[in-house]
Structure formats: C-alpha cells, structure tokens
Specification:
3 helices; Aminopeptidase; alpha+beta; 27% helix
C-alpha cells in the first residue's frame, strides 16, 4: 500500500527524489536540452509538490505542479524510483497533481519531457495527455516532447 501526500518544496525527501531525477536526466540529455527546475527559485505560491511513500514511509516517487500567470499549469519533476516502477504510482501522482490543478482552477496542464523517456510518455498518454507544440518558456527541441491536457 502506498500513500501520497502534498509536501513543502523544502521537504528533504522531495529534495532527494528530485536530485535522483536530475542525475538521471543529466545522463540522458545535454545541458541545453535538460530543463531542470530549481525548486528554491520558484515561489511557494507558484509550486505545489507531492510525494508517494510505501508502507514504511520510504519515499518512492514525486511530482510537482508549477502554476503560470496565464492560468495554465505545468507538470514537473514526476519521478518514480526504479525499484518502485510498474506499480501504477505514476498514475497516482498524475491524479494528485490534476486534483491540485482543479482545486486551483487551472484547466490546462502542460508538460515537457524527453524523447528517451518512452515509459513516461506512455504514462502521460494513458492519463489523457496529447502531443502539442512547444509552449513558453520552451522552444522546439528535437530531444523534447511536449504534451497537454484540458481538465473538465
């Protein structure tokens, strides 16, 4: 059994998970195609974060939602530790993030991921996200995949 909860961006478990994700992505993509988010550079009002933990409260994964001034929001930092993959935790994280977006009246969710992360692209597709063009602040990049979903 896994539980998911919202945490402050300064949470130490979140910081460890994000550090693992950043290291993973840094191996896959060159710096100019690696769109890492420095959580400390974003205001508390702009960012909401979740972590999922196992029964022993060991962090298994995380995700974040970055709110934009135009009312849209961007999914960031979705990561599941390798030993926890294949247990539908990504779907739990996406569902929690979508709930936070709905509570905050954000109806358009967007994301950027990389072409070398096919399992996460498949996750987003299962969750109803469609491919789209690059959105601000991104520019088209042959190593990036852009997706979006309109919430009801």
């Amino acid at each position: 059994m896994f539980n998911i909860s919202e945490v402050d961006k300064g949470n130490s478990d979140l910081a460890r998970l994000v550090s693992e994700l950043d290291a993973f992505q840094s191996e896959l993509y060159p710096a100019e195609s690696n769109h890492l988010l420095d959580l400390s550079a974003v205001s508390d009002e702009q960012l909401r974060c979740v972590i999922v933990c196992d029964e022993g409260d060991t962090p298994a994964g995380c995700g974040a939602l970055l709110f934009h001034e135009d009312g849209s929001a961007e999914i960031k930092q979705v990561y599941i530790r390798p030993e926890y993959r294949g247990r539908k935790l990504g779907e739990k994280i996406i569902s929690a993030i979508e709930g936070i977006a709905s509570e905050n009246n954000s109806r358009l969710l967007q994301l950027e991921t990389g072409i070398h992360q096919q399992p996460v692209i498949a996750l987003y597709r299962r969750c109803g996200y469609d491919m789209c063009d690059a959105f601000s602040p991104y520019k088209a990049d042959p190593l990036s995949v852009f997706m979006r979903k309109e919430l009801l």
